[in-house]
Amino acid sequence: MLVAGLLGAGCRPESSVGDRQTAAHDLVGQWRAKVQFRSGAFTAIRDLEFAYVYNSGGTMMESSNYDAAPPVPPAYGIWRKTGPNQFETKYEFYVTKAPARLEDLTGGGGWLPAGRGVFLERITISDDGDSFASTIRYQALDQAGRAAEGGGEAEGRGVRLRF
Fold it and tell me: What is the CATH number of domain 30-160?
């Protein structure tokens, strides 16, 4: 009986047409986007890219091609559907400050905390579900959680990663 059940499960189609159509209008999965800031501290960066992972439970993670300059961890956040093909995400990352002296780095001080950044992104997925356009608002916060210089606004264009 167990063998028959396993064989039956292996012979089922991976997903129905309805499931694929619903997934095409969902944010769940991995995306890659080109992001261009039009104001704030990141305006001069012309090759900024974000990689996103959206989980079905409403959490997400973002990493950029600049996470190592200066070294910062990925951003973690939440997302929600706001309408047909419309989504809102909020994600945060920790900002670090460069060591003042080489001795600070070699003595184990490293890149110490300097605050955090908060992104609020509004996303519109294309009708085919394979791309998106977004607007992003970035707010820089100091270690006490107060607004700091460097915030700005950006636009993003993303594509879904598929096999």
Answer: 2.40.128
